[in-house]
Amino acid sequence: MELQPIYIQILALAIFALGLMTAISRRNLFFVLMGVELALNAVNLSFIGFSKTLPADMSVTGQIVPLFSIAVAAAEACVGFAMVILLFRKKESVDSDNYSNMKG
Amino acid sequence: MTNLPLWLIPLFPLVATILLGTIAVVSSGGKKGAAEGIVGALAVLFPAMSFAVVAILAYGMPEAGIRETLCNWIDIPLFKADIGFMFDGLSRIMLLFVTGIGTLITMYSIGYMHGDRGFARFFAYINLFLFSMIVLVLSDNLLLTFLGWEGVGLCSYLLIGFWNKDVNNCKAANKAFIVNRVGDIGFLLGMLCLVTVGGSGILNYDALTSFIQMIMTAGHVEIVLPVLSLTGLLFFIGCTGKSAQIPLLTWLPDAMAGPTPVSALIHAATMVTSGVYLLARLGSMFAILPVVLDIITVIGMLTAFWAAMAGLFQNDIKKVLAYSTISQLGYMFMAAGVCAFDASIFHVFTHAFFKAALFLGAGAVIHALAGEQDMRKMGGLVKKTPVTACVMIFAFFAIIGFPGFAGFWSKDLILERLFMSGPMGPAFYVIGLFTAVITAVYMGRLIILTFFGEYRGSKESEEHIHEAPACMLLPMVILAFGAIFAGYLWADSIGITFFRDSLAPVVGSAQAYAATMHSAAHVNPMIFAGLGTLAALLGMFIAYKVYGNARVPAAKGSSAPEGRKATWTFFFDYVHKYCGIIPVQVLAWICDVVVDKILQATQWTLGAIATILGDGATVIQVRKVRLQVAFSVAGVAALVLVVLLTGGLI
User: Fold this and answer.
1) pTM of the full predicted structure?
2) C-alpha span between B400 and A32 (Å, rounded)
């Protein structure tokens, strides 16, 4: 029995929910970033899953987009971690609730 | 030499304006103004050069005139206008006296404005005025004329309010400007009407004339008559504004707040006659509009009579002359109203000389008395200032139409044409003649009060009375010669018709058309001349009897007339107040209450509600970034849910 696309989507949804919940509920910035990465990768998985439903010659699009998004996510992670480090130097803390300078 | 380009004529005053304006601006910071010698020389030289160009061109002008298109001005679909100049019989005469008298009065101003802090500024304005006036009379289409028309209005405003330290002068300037705007709307709408009838090309005077000729030969006059009548009426409103006719005349007496040379140049000799010029220029159109012509005649007649009466009541020497100008303009409009455009332009021409002479004489008197304008404090000046007195007396003979003087020829001509203008002619004639008597009375009063009898001012001021300097006397004397001899260019009774012949190519056909409308009974012109002379003599006699030996009431405070005299004098001010100013004020009040107050209150209420709601909403904005993200995710989720449930956009 072949893997049904719907299960892939369910898995992607579960991972996305986990990532989102991590990003929202954790106060440590590193965990927030990890949660964001997780959510991103869940979306990539969803792309792959949907590309599976298409005929072979068209499904290639769905497989290429995740490659791009992985590259972008890597860059984003770089920048993100750099910012976190700078923020840490400034604030001596990685607790996201401490960063409320912009509040009006 | 006759191939001089026409644009040289307006160029000279324009250059002078720029030069003098620069000097005025540069020297404005200093303690003393710019050197008066240089400024005065520049200010006189440039108008004189432009006069020379006009004279040369006038001498060698071909019968049909010179036309020259300088460049394209407006070129859009449906509307084209050129900057073009036209030098023909009519603009030749206007230009000759505009530049000629302009030069003389500029020269006079050097003496009059001596020591004034705004010396350079004054002459910059004067030259700007001359430039605008030249553009007005030289242009070959209505649009460019309108440019000059507005330009002279602006200069009139600037010069009336020249001594802007006094708030009354500024008020007078504003009044002149605003009242003129009302007339200018008439001019603009008139142009619009013309464009709707015949396209933008018709704004050109030649095109307009040929258009009128075309519809006349094709017999379509009835079709366009309503629109053309409206056009004529609108243009006439424009003329009443600029030429101070009923109902837009209240600004001219107030305009006397300006320096006297300005009153002489702008408010007597040139600018106020531009309305008459426009009537003559559009003569071909007005000739086929009998209703409009009748209105013009009646308005001119009422104005002439009313202003002459008002002139009787004035104590301020310049105010007398101002009302006299309005009255004489009324004569010109009467003449234009019976299609005697050449006679009306002839009166413009002679009037320019004698009224300029009178104003300059009045200026010299005011100068001699160190600013005193109240005639009740003058008297006996003939011994102190003999030259000024002579000039003014000659001009006085001219304005009352004493035989042989300039006004005699032109005024008689107008009265004669009025008499022969159809069934109502004799009535117009009688009122015109009666007005001539009043003219002689109030002018006689002015001369008697100013120059004869005993001096009524204070003793110490009497010692300071002095004759004006030579640069003021020379223009006055020249103008006095003009006041005596200008009439001989068209002395009908002795067979000189040079003036009429030179105007014939421009207004001849219109007048010929009007003449066919009514056959006039022929009356011996000598009778008119005799009656005119009689009117002048009678007026002089009355003036002598009434004012010659009477004790002049002592001057109290203001020189403004009082009691019933004030009612008559300021009648149209009251009319303006109740028909114009108060309705506008009511409208302004309504706008103020509705727009400014009620609408703004609504605005503020709505704004306050939004602010309160916003303040409530900020409660949700808490410190936690994580909570914000959660909210936004929840919001997105809610949106997605709604979209899914409703199936896309509602």
Assistant:
1) 0.79
2) 105
Distance from CA of A52 to the nearest CA of B (A): 24
Residues of B in contact with A97 (CB under 8 A): 623-626
Q: Would an 8 Å CB–CB cutoff place A102 in contact with chain B?
A: no
d(CA A17, CA A34): 13
- Does residue A102 lie within any of the structural domains? no
Question: Are the beta carbons of B626 and A103 separated by less than 8 Å?
Answer: no
Model confidence at B561: pLDDT above 70:
yes
Neighbours of B586 (CB within 10 A): 10
Q: What integer pLDDT is reported at residue B314 of this predicted model? A: 87
* pLDDT exceeds cutoff 70 at B327: yes
Chain B residues near residue A27 by CB distance under 8 angstroms: 626
Long-range contacts of B147-152 (CB under 8 A, 24+ apart): B149/B184, B149/B187, B149/B238, B149/B242, B149/B274, B150/B184, B152/B242, B152/B266, B152/B270, B152/B271, B152/B274
| Cα B471-B473-B477 angle, rounded to 5 deg | 125
Identify the residue with better confidence: B517 or B370: B370
Q: Which residues of chain A have a CB within 8 Å of the CB of B621?
A: 103-104
The predicted model gives B274-295 an average pLDDT of: 90
Would you call A104 and B633 a contact, using CB atoms and an 8 Å cutoff?
no
**From the candidates A22, A25, A91, A103, which should be mutated to test the interface with B, based on the most B CB atoms within 10 A?**
A103
In a domain, A29, yes or no: yes
* Contact residues, chain B, for A100 at CB < 8 Å: 623-625
Total count of domains within chain A: 1
* Nearest-CB residue to B624 (from A20, A23, A97): A97
- Taking CB atoms and an 8 Å limit, are B630 and A24 in contact across chains? yes
Put simply, whether A89 touches B (Cβ < 8 Å) is no
Is the minimum CB–CB distance between A98 and chain B shorter than 8 Å? no
- Residue range of the domain that includes A47: 5-92
Helical (H) or strand (E) element with A7: helix A5-25
Find the helix packing angle between B498-517 and B89-112, rounded to 10°.
Answer: 130
The stretch B270-277 carries a mean pLDDT of: 91
Give burial (CB, 10 Å; 0-12/13-18/19+) of B583.
exposed
Mutate to test the interface with A, among B625, B627, B632, B633 (most CBs of A within 10 A): B625
Contact by Cβ (8 Å): B513, B549: no
What confidence tens digit (pLDDT) does each residue in B423-433 have?
788 888 999 99
Q: What percent of chain B has pLDDT over 90?
A: 40
Tell me which of B615, B626, B632, B640 to substitute to probe the interface with A (most A C-beta atoms closer than 10 Å). Answer: B626
Q: Does A62 fall in a domain?
A: yes
Q: What is the dihedral of CA B568, B319, B348, B387, to 10 degrees?
A: 140
Q: How many Å separate Cα B77 from the centre of its chain?
A: 34
Q: Could you tell me if the ipTM is greater than 0.85?
A: no
What six digits make up the tokens of B504? 């014939």
Closest Cα of chain B to A98: distance in Å? 8
What tens digit of pLDDT does each residue of B137-159 get? Answer: 999 889 999 999 999 999 999 99
Of A24, A100, A104, the CB nearest to B629: A24
Please state, as a whole number, how many other Cβ atoms lie within 10 Å of the Cβ of residue B7.
Answer: 15
For chain B, which residues make up each domain, given as ranges? Answer: 1-140, 141-569, 570-614, 620-650
Mean pLDDT of chain B: 87
Amino acid at B150: E
Mean pLDDT of B578-596: 90
Domain with residue A65: its CATH number is 1.10.287.3510
Cβ-count burial B595-629 (b if 16+ within 10 Å, e if not): eeeeeeeeeeeeeeeeeeeeeeeeeeeeeebbeee
